[in-house]
Amino acid sequence: MDTIKIPRTSQKRVVIIGGGFAGLALADKLCGDHFQVVLVDRHNYHQFQPLLYQVASAGLEPSSISFPFRKNFSKKRNFYFRMAAVTRIVSDQNYIETPIGTLSYDYLVIAAGTTTNFFGNENIRKAALPMKSVEEALTLRNTLLYNLERALDCTDADQKQALLNIVIVGGGATGVEIAGALSEMKRYIIPKDYPDLADHEVNIYLIEGSSRLLNVMSEEASAHVYKFLTEMEVNIITEIHVTDYVDGKVIMSDGQTIATNTLIWVSGVTAERFGGIADDCLARAGRLVVNEFNQLKGHSNLFAIGDICMQTEPDFPNGYPQVAPVAIQQGELLAKNLMQVEKGGALTPFKYKDKGSLATVGRNKAVADIKKIKLQGFVAWAVWLLVHLRSILGVKNKLMVLINWIWNYVMYDQSLRFIFRSRPKGD
Ligand SMILES: Cc1cc2nc3c(=O)[nH]c(=O)nc-3n(C[C@H](O)[C@H](O)[C@H](O)COP(=O)(O)OP(=O)(O)OC[C@H]3O[C@@H](n4cnc5c(N)ncnc54)[C@H](O)[C@@H]3O)c2cc1C
User: Fold this and answer.
1) In whole angstroms, what is the distance from residue 270 CA to residue 258 CA?
2) Is 194 found in the same domain as 65?
3) Pairwise CA distance, residues 396 & 247, whole Å
4) Which of 343, 366, 385 is the last residue before a domain boundary?
5) Ligand 1 centroid to 332 CA: how many Å?
6) Does residue 368 lie in a domain region?
7) Domain match, 88 and 143 both
8) What's 302's domain CATH number?
9) Domain containing 158: what range?
10) From the alpha carbon of 112, which atom of ligand 1 is closest?
11) Are residue 75 and residue 91 in the same domain, yes or no?
12) Is 154 domain-assigned?
């Protein structure tokens, strides 16, 4: 059933859909003599999502947080990459369908992560700026900068304010991080780049439906982040839901509205979907139900790892948090388990080793919950820097990010404020 031209060999073929944290950890460990590994991803690079907000706020170049798959695996034997978006899984005949053809497998691992959840609201989907990929982060950067350019000469006071109002929906880690980064931009960059704009004209709103920001972290962390962001002049609104976006205005559940041309939507995710998956394999937000070995319900050669899967245990009855460490640990364990399957050995069940949670809102301002230890301020910020720098793929990328951070820290500036738009082919 193969129309994609990858030779069949005596090795068993493992097809991995998605080269995010989970897929990459698995492919890294699996490559070698045991299996033929085929990675299929809709992008030709791995993206480091935790720093997307710094690309969106013109603090980092996109290439610093992206790494090409072909380079990453160039020295690995029995590895193949195909750039394609998988559309369907035909599990009774062991093959996948993509726009570039079909490909058979012995083992299939779904590691396709999640996409933004607009909760079925088409108005919001069309207007909002999500932040799940490098392309989306660049669109956000372009929009922010374009709106500032337009605001300068706007003669209608209401339209001008809409260009200068930034509304962020979702007070999780991504929401507070982008709010902090934009607040620093408002304080340090806008007065220099746009001296004819008064800085008080730029308003940043952060709207969260639950009663506190960072509601998956400790109450101490939430309280510190609330204090940091309030001091940074971010307008925080909690226990309010955004219900619609009509005529350029965000509509809230209490009837209030905010006019804005910049609606940043980081309020939830839903699993990537594929044809051919039975309904009884789907849990909340489309996550794929797996057992303790990450096997999809009712299948022995079909696995799901990372954000896309729903794996429960007594401490996590609603599934593990959708964070990078879970994805990496599941990928690494599955590599070992697949080798065990081939040897006829016993499989090891997954158990998440939670090392803690971190979030930053700007220079010297971060929070960290590391088991029972709660850190905030400079120490938490230093931990955040080290953890993220360590996790970025590639020595050059690590260096580029470090240099950018040092430059930003010392100079309070970064000259990446370009509006780059790609020209559609044939225009
Ligand atoms: C803005 C942001 C900030 C975050 N910050 C943190 C943080 O600070 N700390 C933390 O631990 N976690 C953070 N996360 C969460 C973390 O990034 C995820 O938990 C992690 O990426 C999950 O890894 P994954 O491999 O399951 O999926 P992903 O990393 O999302 O990778 C999925 C891959 O699948 C590919 N793909 C999707 N659909 C298809 C298809 N149909 N066909 C082919 N390929 C496909 C995608 O291109 C992608 O490469 C953040 C996430 C975001 C969006």
Assistant:
1) 26
2) no
3) 45
4) 343
5) 16
6) no
7) no
8) 3.50.50.60
9) 122-267
10) 34
11) yes
12) yes
Whole-Å CA distances, 140 to 35, 186, 265, 399, 419: 41, 16, 11, 25, 10
Residues 296-354: tens digit of each pLDDT: 988 999 999 999 999 999 999 999 999 999 999 999 999 999 999 999 999 999 999 99
Q: Which of 233, 267, 301 is the last residue of a domain?
A: 267
- Per the structure block, which two tokens stand in for 382? 């230093």
219-231 vs 173-184: helix crossing angle, rounded to 10: 20
CA dihedral 131, 61, 321, 167 (to 10 degrees): -30
Which atom, in ligand 1's list, is nearest to the CA of 85?
42
pLDDT digits 0-9 by tens, 126-155: 999 999 999 999 999 999 999 999 999 999
Count the domains in the chain.
Answer: 2
Q: Which residues line ligand 1 (CB under 6 A)?
A: 17-23, 40-43, 49-50, 52-53, 85-86, 111-113, 131-132, 173-174, 272, 306-308, 322-325, 327
> At CB < 8 A and 24+ separation, what contacts does 8-13 make?
8/104, 9/36, 9/78, 11/35, 11/36, 11/78, 12/36, 12/106, 12/107, 12/342, 13/37, 13/38, 13/104, 13/105, 13/106, 13/107
